[in-house]
Specification:
By secondary structure, this protein is of the alpha+beta class. The protein has four domains: 129 residues, Schlafen, AAA domain (Methyltransferase, Cobalt-precorrin-4 Transmethylase, Domain 2, 2-Layer Sandwich); 79 residues, no CATH class; 158 residues, 2-Layer Sandwich (Heat Shock Protein 90); 80 residues, Winged helix-like DNA-binding domain superfamily/Winged helix DNA-binding domain (Arc Repressor Mutant, subunit A), CATH 1.10.10.10. It contains 16 helices and 22 strands. The strands form six sheets. The protein has a seven-stranded mixed beta sheet. Strands 1-2-5-4 form a four-stranded mixed beta sheet. A four-stranded antiparallel beta sheet has the order 3-6-7-8. The protein starts with a helix and ends in a 5-residue tail after the last strand.
């Protein structure tokens, strides 16, 4: 986060969406009350290490990491925050002090802290005890998150229960001790938030999330007749298309059908992550397709599209814009569009924590095509990835070494591996490099010196908390 933005936040002070907490020796209980109230209202940002008046005190630097770990553990405890949530605190150095930033997105659920529900009113966290207030909160969330719309007449036979063994196995592949392992089908659906209650009528039933994830095709069409994803290949016939796939089935099978379309029409370039070959094509396609499937606004008549052209590919889907404009890792604030569906995808390993897709695309796309992606937040959300079939990230590093003007350094396999590993993990240590490449640390250090002298590698920041920058990564 930019310093100027932080200065403005601290100058304005606490608001309905901003809360300061001192956090001297640890996190106080009122921090979790604020987490709960932000989840129940419109989301917000908590800054630990800041006085109520905006004065920066900071948190103890040697305790910051433990504070973050304890916070994550607490919000994952159903006896503390229920339903549990996943948040990703960020350590920020500001004016020589360490503060902790916690972004809390709005939730589709009504949350409680130690069995007490809190709401955000102006800059205060208020207990909600009246039945009418709780009902209004449920209604408000149903209006915000269309995935929560309840279909009381939907029956078990309207869902693809035959998919549940596969889904349970996918969850176990990610976590061998996943709670779904021992749950019945009914308990699994309840646990996943796919059964809800209409706060206005009191009727219970499967919600739209359940229908979109597991519904039979005809049931999906009945509940959401405008749902469709149109995949096009348009490289030769620019006026029409070279290949087309129309997908109108459940979200899980839609993902695999669209991924096969991507695998069919995109190059899978060689790329080493550490010492393991990974598929850049599949990583990028996965993030694009998962985003367009799980973060779309299902009430819109705008068809989602996945289009592959000669010099770019892009996805677009209906959206409820939060900030608008171009999204980058620096300005991105995660805000879930369909939290129940997104959580289901995370449970079965098809998605990671909220916000990881932006970071992954900005990391991997330049390695696939040399240029960064574009992500545009609007009524239609767009992800644009440039394509260059001739580009090779590995070759670009090799060329950078062999064509450097200041030294006629010849490509060296060890140096090449060092650059590739550092490019993948800019904070990797000499010890880790030594272990992965399997040569002595002194040899790693001597090769790093050669690369630094050649202008191909530089160190930024302090020895302990700094990072490496590879010359090719600057472009």
């Amino acid at each position: 986060m930019k310093k100027s933005k932080l200065q403005n936040i601290f100058a304005i002070g606490e608001t309905v969406a901003v809360e300061f907490k001192r956090c001297g020796n640890g996190i106080e209980s009122d921090t979790y009350e604020t987490v709960c109230s932000f989840l129940n209202r419109y989301g917000g940002d908590i800054y630990l290490g800041v006085e109520d008046n905006g004065e920066i005190r900071g948190v103890p630097e040697n305790a910051a990491v433990d504070i973050v770990k304890n916070f994550i553990k607490m919000i994952g405890n159903p006896d503390i925050i229920s339903p549990t949530v996943y948040l990703s605190p960020e350590l920020i150095e500001y004016e020589g002090k360490t503060i902790i930033h916690i972004h809390v997105p709005p939730s589709s659920e009504v949350h409680s802290y130690k069995k007490v529900v809190y709401d955000r009113v102006d800059d205060a966290d208020v207990k909600v005890t009246a039945t009418g207030q709780l009902a209004a909160m449920y209604i408000r969330k149903q209006n915000i998150f269309t995935e929560k719309k309840v279909y009381p007449y939907a029956k078990d036979e309207d869902l693809r229960f035959d998919m549940l063994p596969r889904i349970r196995q996918m969850a176990l592949n990610k976590d061998q001790d996943h709670p779904w392992k021992t749950m019945t089908d009914s308990e699994l659906l309840q646990s996943a938030g796919l059964i809800g209650e209409d706060a206005e009528t009191g009727k219970r039933g499967y919600n739209l999330a359940a229908i979109m994830l597991l519904g039979r095709d005809e049931v999906i069409f009945s509940a959401n007749s405008v749902y469709r994803t149109d995949a096009l290949l348009r490289k030769v016939n620019l006026d029409r298309y070279d290949d087309r796939l129309i997908v109108q089935t459940n979200l899980i099978e839609s993902y695999y059908m669209l991924l096969q379309f991507a695998e069919k029409h995109l190059w899978d370039k060689f790329y080493l992550e550490g010492d393991t070959s990974v598929s850049l094509r599949n990583i990028i396609a996965r993030e694009m397709l998962v985003n367009t499937l799980i973060h779309r606004e299902f009430t819109s008549a705008h068809y989602a599209r996945f289009i592959i052209e000669k010099d770019k590919m892009f996805t677009e889907n209906a959206n409820r814009a939060v900030t608008g404009g171009v999204i980058t890792p620096d300005n991105f604030q995660p805000n879930p569009k369909n939290p129940i569906i997104a959580a289901f995808f995370r449970n079965i390993g098809l998605a990671d924590e909220l916000g990881s897709g932006v970071r992954k695309l900005y990391h991997y796309v330049p390695r696939y095509s040399s240029k960064p992606p574009e992500m545009i937040d609007g009524d239609v959300f767009r992800v644009i990835v440039p394509l260059d079939d001739a580009y090779s990230f590995e070759a670009s590093i090799t060329n950078s070494i062999t064509t450097n003007d200041t030294t006629n350094i010849t490509i060296n396999e060890t140096q090449k591996k060092i650059l590739l590993m550092i490019s993948e993990n800019p904070k990797i240590t000499v010890k880790n490099l030594s272990e992965k490449i399997e040569i002595a640390e002194r040899n790693i250090k001597s090769n790093i010196k050669i690369l630094k002298d050649a202008g191909l590698l530089e160190r930024q920041g302090a020895t302990k908390n700094g990072r490496w920058v590879v010359a090719v990564d600057k472009h």
